[in-house]
Write a structure and sequence with these properties.
Elements (H helix, E strand, L loop, with lengths): L4 E3 L11 E6 L2 E6 L5 H15 L13 H16 L3 H15 L9 H13 L8 H19 L29 H12 L9 H12 L3 H5 L6 E2 L4 E3 L14 E3 L4 H10 L14 H10 L20 H14 L4 H8 L3 H8 L7 H5 L12
Antiparallel strand pairs: 1-2, 2-3, 4-5, 5-6
Helix pairs in contact: 1-2, 2-3, 2-5, 3-5, 4-5, 6-7, 6-10, 7-9, 7-11, 12-13
Amino acid sequence: MSQPTLKQPFKRKGNLRWYVTWCEGRTPHRVSTGTTDEAEAQTFFAHWLLIRKDAPIAGDGVNLTVAELWTVYDEKHVQKKVADPSTIGYIWKNLEPHFGRLTVPQINQTVVDDYTAKRVAGRRGRKAKPSTVRKELGALYACLHFCADPKQKLIQKRIIEPVDLPEAGEPRDRWLRTDEMQRLLNAAAGMRRGKRLTRLERFLWLALETAARKQALLELTWDRVDFEMGVIDLDVPGRKKTTKRRAQIPISTALRPILERAHKEKINDLVLDNKGAVWASVQLAAINAGFSNQKVTTSKKPKATGISPHVLRHTAATHMARNGVPLWKIANILGNTLAMVEKVYAKWQPDDPAGTVDHISGGKLEAAE
């Protein structure tokens, strides 16, 4: 392969972009930098060489910036192996202004503490809880350790200074009782503009009756809803496999008529019509259901009400535990490990020690006279 170069191979009216060009054998190749600015093109070229490892890494990577390392991490890991890359993208939007221009040796406890203080105070993006900042910093260090992996050989692990992250905090335990679930569903039904079930209604019913993650529901297609067998297959064929497993979920008695109606009203292959965001719609339904007294105009995004897609999933799992469903079955439905489910939901299991010990002998043992 010939040495890649950066040039404007031709000047056509309306097309003065810079291109990376090279040859493999006798076949020429080129990649557009997407810009007409030479400085921006040079930055693109440097990142492109880094990803392909066409450029030698000097000094154990001590001169590479976090932004350069993140480019490789995003290209080789996030986009290929993370189920929802947009989530990591949002995290980088907060990290980049603070860490992007730094090199790895410049990241120490003082820099991390400064970032934490600014995020918590709202001086770097919106105010965030320490547990949220911990998650963001976790993503940063995942990037650094990925680039230090022997397979990447971009930096040496020894230049990554250990730091203390903010406390994880107590897990959120908000869940909806049966009457609250009904209020939310009724509020969503009241937002219809015609006879067809709204996208929000379908999402809420599915979330509450399957305990599925938001992304799994957004990607659900009708060909994976088997009315004859009574199951919903949440796993997309060919989907990138991650630790967040997707199971086959039985169609509940309450959900079946909703799904059958939605199927008759379908407009395409997606159960939810499209893969657009649902957070704001959930907040509007929660406001209409009385979970918040905020007033919302059509031109403004509602504030958080405490009801989120995660709360719906947590609600479904909590009700299963409270109704005596074995924890291993709940773990299968959630696609989580049994250890995690035991940690979060064991406290909701019915406590009946008397009934439990009665099963030891079944009352068949008798005392001697």
